[in-house]
Amino acid sequence: MAILDNFHQVAALAGSQTIRPPVVEDEKVSLHEGTEQARETPVAMCELEVIPRQWKVVQTVREKFTCRDCERISQPPAPFHPTPRGWAGPNLLAMVLFEKFGQHQPLNRQAERYAKEGVEISLSTLADQVGACAVALRPIHDLIRAHVLGAERLHAD
To answer: What average pLDDT does the segment 33-53 reach?
Structure first.
């Protein structure tokens, strides 16, 4: 199995966890004479595990300050959103776009899966976010298009 050969690489990349079950006192005593047993080299077993996707809401609280003399109000700037007046974070948008265009996962199936995970996002809302991302990424698309079509030859399969 190829995956078993690179457990150490996966552990270095994604992290690992070591579990040592507690030793029951009865297991330390020999059944023959009631003497305590000598400690041997432990037996280790590795398994690859996955942590399911975790959802969270990130709330940004910006404090407001008012000058008592001039009544001027000041507060820190709002955080950057990839889409105008966006409610979806950049990681969520990247995941939706990758699943749609990279994995060919339709938005309706994504919405169904998110609902099963307890996060209900309507199909039209996902479509709106994909459209907003397409508008935001348009300048990059235009640069790539100009570069590709500017070549002397264009190869495709």
So the answer is: 71
Mean residue pLDDT of the chain comes to 84
For the segment 25-48, the average pLDDT, to the nearest whole number, is 66
**DSSP structure string for 16-65:** -----PPPPHHHHB-TTTSPBPPP-PPP-------PPP-----------E
Distance of CA 65 to the CA centre of its chain: 35
Q: Which two three-digit tokens encode residue 18?
A: 């070591």
Q: Would the pTM count as exceeding 0.85?
A: no
Q: Which of 26, 56, 39 is nearest to 117 (CA)?
A: 56
3-class state of residue 100 by DSSP: helix
Q: Which has more pLDDT, 40 or 116?
A: 116
118 sits in the region (left: phi over 0; alpha: psi -120 to 50; else beta) called left
Phi-psi region of 75 (alpha: psi -120 to 50; beta: other; left: phi over 0): beta
Nearest to 113 by CA among 51, 52, 48: 52
Of the candidates 38, 40, 47, the residue with the CA atom closest to the CA atom of residue 3:
47
The token duo for 84 is 């105008």
